[in-house]
From TrEMBL:
Cross-referenced InterPro entries: Cyclic-di-GMP_PDE-like, EAL_dom, EAL_sf, GAF, GAF-like_dom_sf, GGDEF_dom, Nucleotide_cyclase, Rev_trsase/Diguanyl_cyclase
Domain GGDEF: start-end pairs: 206-339
Residue ranges constituting the EAL domain according to the UniProt record: 348-601
Protein name: Bifunctional diguanylate cyclase/phosphodiesterase
PANTHER family the record matches: CYCLIC DI-GMP PHOSPHODIESTERASE PDEF (PTHR33121), SIGNALING PROTEIN YKOW (PTHR33121:SF70)
CDD domains (UniProt xref): EAL, GGDEF
Species of provenance: Deinococcus hohokamensis
């Protein structure tokens, strides 16, 4: 018995199965071809046969009632191995075909089969004819079979293209109106449904509710457990929200950890508040995911038609504004929209426009805060902090514009400018007699994830002339731990340049100590939340001591942030903290003022 090459047979079967015509009734489209061949060649039996791994399927036939046969016993099993037409003039004189059902039951004596060859050269079946007497098929007849076999393949290809096009069209339409991660409606579908709900509400005089729901602390899950767990968690959250709503309500996801809920046909405004409470209660129940038990709270903002807006976008803006008011109230709250919130949202939009212009015009400045060796009081470094000064001289706090810069992507050009300016200033001060002065610069998530970040750092060092050993890049725990593999490679690359990486705000996230051990960290910055309780008691001091011990184990210098009193300074010194930073040691000030306060003593 002939045994096909396993790899070739696997590829052949893959080509066959992609047409999706096995285990289906005979194809009506092919009946015309079989009838035509029977008439033209004067044969009693014509079949279009697709040959699978062990069985062969007749997708059209005339002259026989057989629809499925064993591959090993039929002439077509041999024909699919041929490049051209396979002919057997007398089947009774060929013993290996004696078990062909058409020979045994239909009295066939001769055979001619043209392989069905796919465009990429695989024979998936045969267009075959049987006659009841010995017969030599002429070259013209064989050529005719080959031409019609090509038409069969053309028909299969057309069917496949149609199926693929229909599937792609359906998928494209679904993707255009649904969130790729959760399968929930997206912004486009929600706005469309909102428009329909508002038309109905206008006719019936009923209110419509719009809720914007944001998860409190979702970033912690992403940072501590990874984005894959975070994505799975968002899917479960979406499903739980759906279960807590009426069939006529819509829950949509716009991206991130923000969900929007449309509530049509409300009886009164209080109904929306009750729905918000129900959603908060639903999410407050523990989540079991991949063997983990997770807890979550949410903040909800509510807007109502017609009081807060007559169009979908206006209601969405109002609900979003109310949601931020809920977060400001302490999270795990819900708030209805108010006029004051509208002004706050408009101020934010105005600030975003100003920020874009400020980056383009270079309206920012760098302030510097000293870092002091606690044992000697000696200035050993400084942190560069970006500030945005308005025309009237007031400074916009970083908390007001840094998140906006992150959202818009402006943090990348802004961060590049700060890094270059800080390096150049450090070189100038070193040239003035402070050769050991190092500079720390904060790096955002967006900067860190840029493929060109490391070459950029290298180029700035080259352009400014700053030694890599005098540059410290401060990264938050979330940047380092959200993608441990990438973080390790990035930290290794920077260390190979001679640049130190500092873990900023240490203690505020959920560090995986085993991951920290594998990272090339040159500095740990102890968050101010550890410093503020000092001198405190044994518990507070033990927490600081544990961070100092960890820094020593990682061969990373510890810098305590937020030192505001002499008592805090003395306790940190007593505990063995090497370096401190905070208002008690010096506030962030422009370069010229920094020189007066710290370099000209």
């Amino acid at each position: 018995m002939w045994t096909p090459d396993p790899l070739e047979e696997q590829e052949r079967l893959e080509r066959l199965h992609r047409y999706l015509v096995l285990d289906t009734p005979p194809e009506v489209e092919f009946d015309r071809i079989t009838r035509f061949v029977k008439h033209l060649l004067g044969v009693p039996v014509v079949i279009i046969n697709l040959v699978a791994a062990r069985r062969a399927w007749l997708k059209s036939s005339v002259g026989t009632n057989i629809h499925e046969v064993d591959r090993a016993s039929i002439c077509c099993g041999e024909a699919i191995k041929q490049d051209g037409v396979f002919v057997v003039e007398d089947l009774l004189a060929t013993p290996r075909f004696q078990n062909d059902p058409l020979v045994k039951f239909e009295g066939a004596r001769s055979y001619a089969g043209a392989p069905l060859k796919t465009p990429d050269g695989f024979n998936i079946g045969v267009l075959a004819v049987y006659d009841r007497h010995p017969r030599a098929f002429t070259p013209l007849e064989q050529s005719f079979l080959q031409d019609l076999a090509a038409i069969v393949i053309d028909e299969l290809e057309l069917r496949l293209m149609t199926l693929q096009w229909t599937k792609a069209k359906d998928q494209s339409e679904f993707q255009a109106r649904h969130d790729a991660l959760t399968g929930l409606p997206n912004r486009l579908m929600l706005l469309d449904r909102t428009g329909q709900a508002l038309l109905q509400a206008e006719r019936h005089g009923t209110p419509v509710g719009m809720l914007v729901l944001d998860l409190d602390g979702f970033k912690t899950i992403n940072d501590s457990l990874g984005h894959s767990v975070g994505d799975e968690f968002l899917k479960v959250v979406g499903a739980r929200l759906r279960e807590a709503l009426r069939p006529q309500d819509t829950v949509a996801r716009f991206g991130g950890d923000e969900f929007v809920i449309l509530l049509p046909e409300l009886h009164d405004a209080l109904d929306a508040g009750r729905v918000a409470e129900r959603l908060q209660e639903a999410l407050a129940q523990p989540f079991e995911l991949n063997g983990l038990v997770l807890e979550m709270r949410c903040s909800v903002g509510i807007s109502l038609y017609p009081n807060d807006g007559h169009e979908a976008e206006a209601l969405l803006l109002a609900a979003d504004t109310a949601m931020y008011q809920a977060k400001a109230a302490g999270k795990h709250q819900y708030r209805f929209y108010a006029e004051a919130m509208t002004r706050a949202a408009q101020d934010k939009l105005h600030l975003r426009g100003q920020l874009s212009q400020a980056v383009a015009k270079g309206e920012f400045e760098v302030h510097y805060q000293p870092q002091v060796e606690l044992t000697t009081g000696r200035l050993i470094g400084l942190e560069a902090l970006v500030r945005w000064r308005q025309a009237d001289g007031r400074l916009i706090p970083p908390g007001a514009f840094i998140p906006l810069a992150e959202e818009t992507g402006l943090i990348i050009p802004l961060g590049t400018w700060v890094l270059r300016e800080a390096c150049a200033q450090a070189v100038r001060w070193q040239a003035e007699g402070y050769p050991e002065l190092g500079v720390s610069v904060n790096v955002s998530v967006r900067q860190w994830e840029e493929p060109a970040f490391m070459p950029l750092v290298q180029q700035i060092l080259l352009d400014t002339g700053l030694s890599p050993s005098h540059l410290i890049l401060e990264i938050t725990e979330s940047v380092l731990l959200s993608d441990p593999q990438d973080a390790r490679m990035q930290a290794e690359g920077l260390a190979s340049l001679g640049v130190r990486v500092a873990l900023d705000d240490y203690g505020t996230g959920y560090s995986n100590l085993s991951q920290l051990q594998s990272l090339r960290i040159g500095q740990l910055k102890l968050d101010r939340s550890f410093v503020q309780p000092l001198p405190g008691g044994p518990r507070e001091q033990a927490l600081v001591q544990s961070a100092l011990t960890l820094g020593q184990a990682l061969d990373a210098r510890v810098v305590a942030e937020g030192i505001e009193t002499e008592e805090q300074l003395l306790m940190l010194h007593a505990l063995g903290c090497p370096v401190g930073q905070g208002y008690f040691l010096g506030r962030p000030v422009p370069a010229a003022e920094f020189e007066v306060q710290h370099l000209q003593r």
